[in-house]
């Protein structure tokens, strides 16, 4: 998979290194010469250019990439890059970094954003996830379809404990995607029985989150 990352700061470089380790092709773009440090991510392609300019994105061959990540420290830049990637080049997946939570409402499909990642929100969500059992925690927002990645740790004594995944009448517009049990990451199977302490990750429509939480925390 070819991925273009706009913004070669610490965040952009970190994402690039992880994607390269997973076998993807990565191009980093930044207009600041001090951030174009090939030796820091030697396996990546580099482009010294302004990612907000069409000529730069033409040079980056955005039409050939499957994912664009707008990872700069400037929300305005990330929005412009997202919009151009989606509308001018038809990039299938656009991920944008939100630097200031007050701007999060802008990062939606109107600006070409498929997934908005707010570092402050993610940090607070991870804190909540670490201390909360039986509370639904929103980890990530998907702009398209008004859906979120949410997590809930199944409490002791919940009615669903011992129930097979395939027997649960999950709310509409929700999908159980992962069960984390201890150190194991499990792809849910219809025959898997839910256990207390399971961390359940769902993709769920926003308006179904309360119903999902009620189902998972209901007592016999």
From TrEMBL:
Domain of life from the UniProt record: Bacteria
PROSITE patterns found in the cross-reference section: RCK_C, RCK_N
GO molecular function: potassium ion transmembrane transporter activity
RCK C-terminal domain segment(s): 137-218
Sequence ranges assigned to domain RCK N-terminal in this UniProt record: 1-117
GO cellular component, one term: plasma membrane
Pfam families assigned to the protein according to its UniProt record, in alphabetical order: TrkA_C (PF02080), TrkA_N (PF02254)
Keywords associated with the record: Ion transport, NAD, Potassium, Potassium transport, Transport
Protein name stated in the entry: Trk system potassium uptake protein TrkA
């Amino acid at each position: 998979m070819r991925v273009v990352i706009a913004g070669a700061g610490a965040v952009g470089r970190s994402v690039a290194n992880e994607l390269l380790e997973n076998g993807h092709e990565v191009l980093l773009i930044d207009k600041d010469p001090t951030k174009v440090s090939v030796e820091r991510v030697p396996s990546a392609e580099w482009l010294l250019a302004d990612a907000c300019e069409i000529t730069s994105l033409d040079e980056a061959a955005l039409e050939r990439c499957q994912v664009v990540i707008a990872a700069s420290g400037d929300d305005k830049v990330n929005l412009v890059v997202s919009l151009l990637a989606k509308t001018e080049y038809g990039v299938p997946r656009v991920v944008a970094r939100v630097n200031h939570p007050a701007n999060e409402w802008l990062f939606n499909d109107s600006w070409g954003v498929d997934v908005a990642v707010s570092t402050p929100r993610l940090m607070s969500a991870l804190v909540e996830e670490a201390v909360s059992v039986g509370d639904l925690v929103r980890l990530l927002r998907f702009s398209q379809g008004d859906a979120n990645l949410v997590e809930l740790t199944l409490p002791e004594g919940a009615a669903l404990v011992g129930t097979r995944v395939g027997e649960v009448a999950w709310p509409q517009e929700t999908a159980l995607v992962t069960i984390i049990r201890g150190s194991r990451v499990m792809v849910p199977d219809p025959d898997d029985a839910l256990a207390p302490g399971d961390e359940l990750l769902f993709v769920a429509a926003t308006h179904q989150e309360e119903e999902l939480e009620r189902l998972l925390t209901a007592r016999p």
